[in-house]
Amino acid sequence: KQTNKQTKSLKMSLETLKSNNQQLMDKLLSEKKKYADTTLDQACSNDVESLGEINLRPRRVLRGHFGRIYAMHWSSDSQHLLSAAQDGKLIVWDAYTNTKVYAVPLESNWVMTCAYSPSGTFIASGGLDSLCTVFNLEQQEDMSGTIHQKLAHHTGYLSCCRFLNDRQILTSSGDQTCVLWDIERGKPITIFSGHTNAVMSLSLSPDMQTFVSGACDSTAKLWDMRDGKCKQTFFGHTADINTIQFFPSGFAFGTGSDDTTCRLFDIRADQQVNVFSSDATQAGVTSVAFSKSGRLMFAGYEDFNCNVWDTLLGEHVGILAQHEERVSCLGVSDDGLALCTGSWDSSLRVWSI
């Protein structure tokens, strides 16, 4: 009886805490709204001309995977790109010549993310094995899959990884944390805790001092890697955030969610400044990326399409519709001249004007 009373008391205390937390959250959002005197599209409507329809043409189709492609990442040279698929392969492509440069076999087929180091020497991947596996491309001439380092700490799936340099990499996981790693030592440097559900995506700021993360708790967070602390939390989405990407200036970031919307958050305003949605886009968003200027946001959707949005006016300005399955990943090359989309149809397509 005593145990039952204690359990009942704990449940009541938990419910009270949840209620108090929700009240504080509602009050915080209410205070923020007082300062949201306009939206970005309203502020720009009189001074910014509409872009009209944006037409990108497919320049390359990269075929070679035999499973669903889950992730891709451009090299900093804007010529090579990396893709990861559930056929158990990482493939490095030459987008200029439409050829494979490396095919790296993985120990686990259940890959969810991949990354290219800024130097172009290392690549990394991870997924349901909860590991971040790093490969040195200089050791892959025989396509043996020789592993440079395995980074083991996460207790949930690895959802995203991004190199800072050849010595450090940042990862996010289903265990609700992000981790900054020392690759050579194979040890965590900093563990970032604060989300209350699986972290699905992360993006490094241009100055490499901060990063943003998006999670299944419907929030996005800004973290400072110098002290390991969360500096800001952003609200607006009503479902899982699947993807997040810094704006080129570093003062804003975009997100995509299962609630079928993309959103633009301004760090200085500490809140959402634009929402991208329409009656024609009623599927979950899997991936987002910005053009080099930031005027365009590209978003991959579960309905097989990549939609193009005007970030200033919030208008839908284009659609790329050649994939035969969901668009699972996309990215813009560092020189801004090409967009690559990856799909569950096992192909990658490179687009440009």
Description of the molecule:
The strands form seven sheets. Strands 1-28-27-26 form a four-stranded antiparallel β-sheet, with no helix packed on it. The chain is globular and about 65 Å long. It has 353 residues and is mainly β. Strand 26 and strand 27 (339-343) form a beta hairpin. The protein is built from two helices and 28 strands. The model has no long low-confidence stretch (mean pLDDT 93). 44% of the residues are buried. The protein has helices at residues 2-34, 40-44, and strands at 57-63, 69-74, 80-85, 89-94, 99-105, 111-116, 122-127, 131-136, 149-152, 158-163, 168-173, 177-182, 187-193, 199-204, 210-215, 220-224, 229-234, 241-246, 252-257, 262-266, 271-276, 285-290, 296-301, 306-310, 316-320, 327-332, 339-343, 347-352. Helix content is 11%, strand content 46%.
Outline type: globular
Strand content: over 45%
Major sheet: size, sense and barrel closure? 4 strands, antiparallel
| Rg result | 21 Å
- Strand and helix order: HHEEEEEEEEEEEEEEEEEEEEEEEEEEEE
Provide the structure class: mainly beta
**Mean pLDDT level:** 93
Q: Tell me the strand order in the biggest sheet.
A: 1-28-27-26
**Helix content percent band:** 10-25%
Number of helices: 2
The N- and C-terminal alpha carbons lie at a distance of 73 Å
Could you list the spans in which at least 5 consecutive residues all have pLDDT below 50? none
Got a strand count?
Answer: 28
